[in-house]
UniProtKB/TrEMBL annotation:
Belongs to the aldo/keto reductase family. Residues 27-268 form the NADP-dependent oxidoreductase domain. Gene3D superfamilies: NADP-dependent oxidoreductase domain. GO terms for molecular function: oxidoreductase activity, acting on the CH-OH group of donors, NAD or NADP as acceptor. It comes from Hespellia stercorisuis DSM 15480. This is Aldo/keto reductase. The active site is at residue 52.
């Protein structure tokens, strides 16, 4: 991988860029401007969701960029209150409408269950997946996948599917390595993607971790670049978000250095902070908590 334009090949033969741009909280600033800025910085892969409230502005920025649609890789996700066969199909149409696009490159189920107490999640997941399979078979979407699905959730999908998931988007960073989930994804040829790859950045625990800071000094890069390069070298697609042009640039400047095997091992085995966001079985986000 030499640049953010380089791609992995997914299990259906489709190409996916090795770095994406996250749009959650892009609404905190002017998200059309933020997205335009990210496009100018070179990003073409954008991650959104019906939850984020960024689909309309992302669509607007794409349109106004004048860059052909095919040069972008656009991913959205259906929220927990849009699950079920009919719910998922209708949600896809709403996302397309907000984005003003004719198709998405990937459409994902955002969470495997609507709440920790929701007992019948297996049935709901399969019904939702069937809708995504039909969208895929009808060629309305280029690819379909999962988000926040752990091995036991994916087992259920694999038992009932006719189309295999292409990707799974998980919280992944050096403080939360998720080895078991990653080994499972590798075994099943499902591409891992990292949400909150910077551990939510800013002055977070991860950005101030002494070992990450030591490596940043050694490689003459920032702590954020260490986190992103670490994911890249593990074959994981990071989806960093930034509203700041300098940090947008910095987050894609991760191809001119290589973390040694020894330092990779130290990063892989560093003390874990655990999950910072939510856990797919214990702490499920509420749509109102944005
Ligand atoms: N599937 C899912 O359930 C989830 C998916 N996601 C996706 O993943 C994306 C990224 O995750 P997110 O939670 O936003 O967290 P990130 O780990 O990407 O961190 C974003 C924060 O880091 C700051 N930041 C960005 N670049 C740098 C840098 N170089 N140095 C220091 N700080 C920096 C940003 O501030 P600033 O803007 O000021 O630069 C922002 O506050 C989301 O936008 C979304 O698309 C996220 C959560 C859950
Ligand atoms: O995608 C997402 C963005 O972050 C939110 C807050 O952690 C999550 O709930 C959601 O899944």
């Amino acid at each position: 991988m030499d640049s953010i334009y380089d791609c992995y090949t997914l299990n259906n033969g489709m190409q996916i860029p090795c770095v994406g741009f996250g749009t959650y909280k892009a609404m905190d600033t002017d998200s059309v401007e933020v997205t335009k800025c990210a496009i100018e910085a070179g990003y073409r892969y954008f991650d959104t969701a019906s939850l984020y409230g960024t689909e309309e502005d992302l669509g607007k920025a794409i349109k106004e960029s004048g860059i052909p649609r095919e040069e972008f890789f656009i991913v959205s996700k259906l929220w927990t209150d849009e699950m079920g066969y009919e719910g998922a199909k209708a949600a896809y149409e709403r996302s397309l409408k907000r984005l003003q696009l004719g198709y998405l490159d990937l459409y994902l189920i955002h969470w495997p269950r609507p709440s920790a107490e929701y007992a019948d999640w297996k049935k709901l997941d399969v019904e939702t997946w069937k809708a995504l399979e039909d969208l895929y078979k009808e060629k309305k979407v280029r690819g379909i996948g999962l988000s926040n699905f752990l091995p036991h959730h994916i087992d259920n999908i694999l038992e009932h599917c006719t189309v295999k998931p292409l990707v799974d988007q998980l919280e992944l960073h050096p403080g939360y390595a998720q080895e078991t989930a990653l080994a499972y994804l590798k075994e099943h040829d499902i591409q891992p993607q990292a949400w909150s790859p910077l551990g939510r950045g800013g002055r977070s625990e991860l950005m101030q971790n002494p070992f990450i800071m030591e490596l940043a000094g050694k490689y003459e890069v920032s702590p954020a670049q260490i986190c992103l390069r670490f994911l890249l070298q593990r074959g994981i697609i990071p989806l960093p978000k930034s509203g700041n042009p300098e940090r947008m640039r910095q987050n894609q400047d991760i191809f001119s250095f290589e973390i040694t095997r020894e330092d990779m091992y130290r990063l892989e085995t560093m003390p874990q902070t655990g999950w910072l966001g939510e856990h797919p079985d214990f702490k499920i986000p509420d749509k109102k908590v944005q």
